[in-house]
Amino acid sequence: MVQPRPVAVTRSVLLFVLAALAEIGGCWLIWQAVREHRSWLLAVGGVLALGAYGFVAAAQPDSHFGRVLAAYGGVFVVGSLAWGVLVDGFRPSVWDFVGAAVCLVGAGIIIYQPRA
């Protein structure tokens, strides 16, 4: 079995964080334009950020689209809750933390499993 190298894991984690910022930030900008009736320019910025997310996700070292996106799902859950806390003043419950931890552990298992 081959374990992922620490440099590859570090790069992958940084790409997941960058992807989360682009996707969650892009969605938030569109939300602001549509739901909060703010400038349509925010929606344009959101569309650009969502496009950037696609390119960042494609830069992951793992070559399997489904695996990368499945693992990113766990990062998205944690990132969305963190965004809510930092940007919108959301107060997560203990169950939000437990659910986020389960998602993040699952993401780690999916993307960093030993390979034959």
From TrEMBL:
Topology relative to the membrane: Multi-pass membrane protein
GO cellular component: plasma membrane
Statement: the UniProt record of this protein carries the keyword Cell division: no
Keyword Transferase (UniProt): no
Main location class: membrane
Regions crossing the membrane: 12-31, 37-56, 68-87, 93-112
Location(s), subcellular: Cell membrane
Keywords: Cell membrane, Membrane, Transmembrane, Transmembrane helix
HAMAP family: UPF0060
Family: Belongs to the UPF0060 family.
The name this protein goes by in its record: Small multidrug resistance family-3 protein
Organism whose genome encodes this protein: Streptacidiphilus jiangxiensis
